[in-house]
Amino acid sequence: MHSFNNILIAYDGSEGSVKALKLGIDMMRRLDTNITVLQVLEEKMTGASISSRQPEVMPVGGFGLQGMNMYANNVKERVPTDRPPQATNYDPTEEASMEIRELLAQERVEAPVEVMFGDPAKTICKFAQTQNHDLIIIGSRGLGGLKKLILGSVSDKVTNSATCPVLVAK
User: Fold this and answer.
1) How deeply is 50 buried, as exposed, middle or buried, from its count of CB atoms within 10 A (0-12, 13-18, 19+)?
2) CA torsion sign, 92 to 94 to 99 to 104?
3) What is the Rg, in whole angstroms, of the alpha carbon atoms belonging to the chain?
4) Which of its termini does the chain have fewer beta carbons within 10 Å around, N or C?
5) What is the distance between the alpha carbons of residues 51 and 169, in angstroms, rounded to a whole number?
6) Which residue would you say has higher pLDDT here, 170 or 56?
7) Regarding beta strands 34-41 and 113-117, do their DSSP bridges make them parallel or antiparallel, or are they unpaired?
8) Residue 116 in contact with residue 124, Cβ under 8 Å?
């Protein structure tokens, strides 16, 4: 029988990941093993500027970058630049780890909590491999039909890419 000494629990706030966390805690207690909880936040591209040569004249049959920039400048002038003090101190990793820490506290468990940015499946697999985890527990969101076919699911990608066993909690 395979021994699991270092379990990674993938958490994303979904109902399936809460089940994965509870399953991981149960396995930790029964097998006297270590757990680490990892939440991966997807990076969103915001505030990116368009770097392109602006045409001097409007192209035939289209809307040139010159017109787009004029529109963007008008909007920018009307948007307030003042931000409330709490907005500048907002830390999404702190908020994410607090939710996990509260769940662990309810179960009376102390465990490392990691919050990272990136592609969830790739980051989970890479973290598990570099930190020598010998089992990944991940929740299933239950995507169905066309959505699952087009998008795939993180649990499917992790199951197919991980170098260690993966347990999907349903």
Assistant:
1) exposed
2) positive
3) 22
4) N
5) 45
6) 170
7) parallel
8) no
Side-chain half-sphere CA neighbours of 155 within 13 A: 20
Instruction: Locate the DSSP E strands across the chain.
Output: 6-10, 34-41, 113-117, 135-139, 166-169
What letter would DSSP give residue 87? H
More confident position, 145 or 108: 108
Question: In 10 A of CB 92, how many CB atoms?
Answer: 11
| Whether pLDDT at 70 is above 90 | no
- Characterise 31 by phi-psi region: left (phi > 0), alpha (psi -120 to 50), beta (else): alpha
Overall average pLDDT of the 49-65 stretch: 45
Question: For 152, how many CA atoms within 13 A lie in the half-sphere containing its CB?
Answer: 10
